[in-house]
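To the structural biology subgroup,

Please find below the input and predicted structure for Sarcalumenin, which we are adding to the shared reference set this quarter. The sequence is reproduced verbatim from the submission form. If anyone notices a discrepancy with their own records, reply to this email rather than editing the shared folder directly, so we keep one authoritative version.
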Amino acid sequence: WAGAEPTTSEFTVIMHGPKLKTIEGIVMAADSARSFSPLEKFGQNFLEKLIGIEVPHKLLERVTFVDTPGIIENRKQQERGRGYPFNDVCQWFIDRADLIFVVFDPTKLDVGLELEMLFRQLKGRESQIRIILNKADSLATQELMRVYGALFWSLAPLINVTEPPRVYVSSFWPHEYHPDTHKELFLKEEISLLEDLNQVIENRMENKIAFIRQHAIRVRIHALLVDRYLQTYKDKMTFFSDGELVFRDIVEDPDRFFIFKSILAKTNVSKFDLPNREAYKDFFGINPITSFKLLSQQCSYMGGCFLEKIEKAITRELPDLLGSIGLGKKPNVLSCDVTGCGETPKNRYRKP
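Predicted structure (tokenized):
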């Protein structure tokens, strides 16, 4: 949730279980059979804000939902703090997510520093983001259109991609829709959201492989750039040179030494995949250039070369694996009988 005030204060993990059951965070982290033990590194204050709920629902056999605390855009509350590293915890869940929903309340729409930080963490995962404008029936049509436009205007600087994330407009809450609202539209949006979720579940393995390949491409580019920085440093060093000053010149103006252009000229790297030059000032400020070895020195007779291995994975192994998984699948067929997305349109969040 994003808004002026947070709507929830806990990380709630909704997962499958034989019966309805609530599990405390300290129990989840201590249970070796679960995958939450790494969360202990964020401290006891965080574990007290972690709750697990087991629900005997068929959909949860295939997917787990994590509801994060609301974004705090209230400066006084930000100053008091949460008592644990909120952004680091969010990053832990982001790294393991197949789909990321960012939910906005149209009556408390606010885009501030904490939301900006969250979207910086989501950079590179734009295809996994879905925007939900909830409680849409609480506004008149004209006001809803204004809020919808304002939301896009506010998010545009935060999501710098050609195709913006899909926005779902509805009211996902256990109440009757307000009278004189667009009920048919809201119901269609609900069905679309469930079909979207189902499609991600069906394509989960393919998405994982594609993401691994995307990450491998970034690792390859990073390795090539570090190698080029290091080679340039070695070429410029003399017996009388001050190593720190020499490398500072290279980092401050890499274009003068053709660092990035040389990568584009000698490899199959897209210029659109090159990272920000400024990022390497911070990177080498933490990691001294002298702590690295040239890629040509990262080879062995038995093990081969690291760069060749990652090139092979990117160009052959991962695409072959992706193709083999898709061979037995029927295109454009959603198994809604499994997840329930093909039911007669109704508001599943409305109390009976």
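Summary notes: The mean pLDDT is 82. The two ends are 25 Å apart (CA to CA).

Regards,
Lab coordination
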